[in-house]
Specification:
Layout (H helix, E strand, L loop, with lengths): L10 H9 L11 H9 L15 H16 L15 H22 L7 E4 L5 E6 L3 E7 L7 E7 L3 E7 L5 H13 L1
Antiparallel strand pairs: 1-2, 2-3, 3-4, 4-5
Helix pairs in contact: 3-4, 4-5
Length: about 180
C-alpha cells in the first residue's frame, strides 16, 4: 500500500485512489498502480458532505475541496506526482458550476457534490458514484485539452465523451438528470 501522510491526504481520497477502476477509455494510471487498486479490498467510503444540497452549498463544497487539492505539494502520492495548478482548479470549478447551472435551469435538479480528487498528470478527477449511476470526468491541466468523461446508468446507458468546456454541457446535463432520477 502507498504510504500517504494523513495530514496531506485524507483516508477517503487515499482509499478511493487505490480502489477505483477506470473505464478502458480513461485507463491513465500505470499498470503497477492499476494492479494495486484492483487488488485492494478497501471499500469506497460514502461522500461525507451533508445532504443539504442548495446551490450555494454546492459551490462552497467545490471551493473547499479545490483549496485542499491546491495545498497538496509535489510528490503528494509518494510517486513523484506534481502538484495541481490553480488554472486546473479554476477550470474544474467553472465546469462544475456550468453543469450545475444547466441542471438547475432546465431540470430543477441539484445533484450531490461529487468527489473531487487530484488526477494523473496534474489533472483533476470529478466522480459521482451512486448505486444507480457512475460518472467520472477528467479535467486536464492544459486549458485547451479536451475534458474526458465516462459514465453509466445501471450498467446500461453508457456515455463516453471528449469535450471542450463549452461543448455538449447540455448533453451531459441531460444524461446526469436521467441518472439522478433513477
Amino acid at each position: 500500500m502507498i504510504e500517504i501522510p494523513a495530514n496531506r491526504f485524507c483516508d477517503r481520497e487515499r482509499n478511493y485512489c487505490l480502489q477505483i477502476k477506470r473505464s478502458q477509455s480513461l485507463q491513465i494510471f500505470n499498470p503497477a498502480k492499476r494492479k494495486l487498486m484492483e487488488n485492494n479490498n478497501i471499500k469506497i467510503q460514502p461522500n461525507t458532505f451533508p445532504k443539504d444540497n442548495t446551490f450555494d452549498n454546492f459551490e462552497n463544497r467545490i471551493e473547499s475541496k479545490l483549496k485542499e487539492i491546491l495545498n497538496l505539494e509535489d510528490n503528494w502520492d509518494g510517486e513523484n506526482s506534481k502538484s495541481i495548478s490553480e488554472i486546473t482548479a479554476e477550470r474544474t470549478k467553472k465546469f462544475l458550476m456550468e453543469l450545475k447551472k444547466n441542471l438547475v435551469k432546465k431540470y430543477t435538479q441539484i445533484p450531490e457534490t461529487p468527489l473531487i480528487l487530484p488526477g494523473p498528470n496534474r489533472s483533476i478527477d470529478v466522480h459521482w458514484r451512486k448505486k444507480s449511476y457512475d460518472l467520472l470526468v477528467n479535467l486536464p491541466m492544459e486549458p485547451t485539452a479536451h475534458i474526458t468523461l465516462a459514465g453509466d446508468i445501471n450498467n446500461k446507458s453508457v456515455i463516453k465523451l471528449s469535450i471542450t468546456e463549452d461543448e455538449e454541457i447540455e448533453v451531459l446535463a441531460s444524461w446526469l438528470n436521467i441518472a439522478i432520477q433513477t
